[in-house]
Design goal:
- The protein is mostly beta strands.
- Helix content is about 0%, strand content about 55%.
- It contains no helices and 22 strands.
- Strand 7 and strand 8 form a beta hairpin.
- It has a seven-stranded mixed sheet with strand order 1-20-17-22-15-13-14, with no helix packed on it. A seven-stranded antiparallel sheet has the order 2-3-4-11-6-9-12, with no helix packed on it. Strands 5-10-7-8 form a four-stranded antiparallel sheet, with no helix packed on it.
- Belongs to the pirin family.
Length: about 230
């Protein structure tokens, strides 16, 4: 089953310094149909203007991933970590027993990043933070893992049985993805257009939630950059 969510179906919040497009219920926005997808709880497509951001605030028992698409994102937290991430960078934070952090835009241009929250496999973990870099050129016509339970040098570790892939697929190129029966797939289009199993066409910022489908064919209708998340 492939359920498509057009970009226009997302909830849009505009606070002036922040424009956020919400794929799931978040903060004051609640939709009983979009509370979660497996352990995936949040996908916010955030745009933060220069010099602004999310001041210090707390989290508990959540795996939080930020993938920067444009601009600069600065992280600081109560464990002493600080980092500035740009395109090609990923931030992963385990909130666990409790952590306080901020995410600010230190650059001159607006920063656009995807903020994702996932339920951890186990609660009350020791809080931790990690930033990793991947080579964007390696996304060309493949699914490049950038976050996974099975981490490596350029892949952030997450305390959940999932993998986040990024891909830069040239027009007409085809990728085939297979997973074990009973798992879920989430697809989000960053730029371009993508056919799923030659049935569903996703355009820029559309997403799809896929269940009971262990084999997925992805065909680029034009030059497309997208994210695929393999979930339990």
């Amino acid at each position: 089953m492939i359920e498509v969510f057009p970009a226009s179906s997302r909830h849009r919040a505009d606070l002036g310094w922040l424009t956020s497009n919400l794929s799931f219920s978040f903060a004051d926005y609640y939709d009983p149909k979009t509370v979660s997808f497996g352990p995936m709880r949040v996908l916010n497509d955030d745009f933060v203007v220069s010099g602004s951001g999310f001041g210090m605030h707390p989290h508990r028992n959540m795996e939080i991933v930020s993938i920067v698409l444009e601009g600069e994102l600065q992280h600081q937290d109560s464990t002493g970590h600080t980092a500035v991430t740009t395109f090609g960078g990923v931030q992963r934070m385990t909130a666990g027993t409790g952590i306080i952090h901020s995410e600010m835009n230190p650059g001159e241009d607006t920063v656009n990043f995807l903020q994702m929250w996932f339920d951890p496999e186990e609660n009350n973990l020791t809080p931790s933070y990690q930033t990793t870099q991947y080579d964007p050129s390696l996304m060309k016509n493949i699914l490049l893992p950038v976050v996974s339970k099975n981490s490596s040098t350029n892949v952030s570790h997450i305390h959940q049985d999932l993998t986040i892939y990024l891909s830069d697929l040239e027009a007409g190129e085809v990728l085939n993805y297979e997973q074990a029966e009973g798992r879920r797939i989430f697809v989000f289009i960053i730029e371009g257009s993508l056919w799923l199993n030659e049935k569903e066409l996703l355009n820029k910022r559309d997403s799809a939630r896929i269940t009971s489908t262990s084999a997925l064919q992805l065909i680029a209708a034009d030059h497309t950059r997208f994210m695929l998340v393999d979930l339990p």
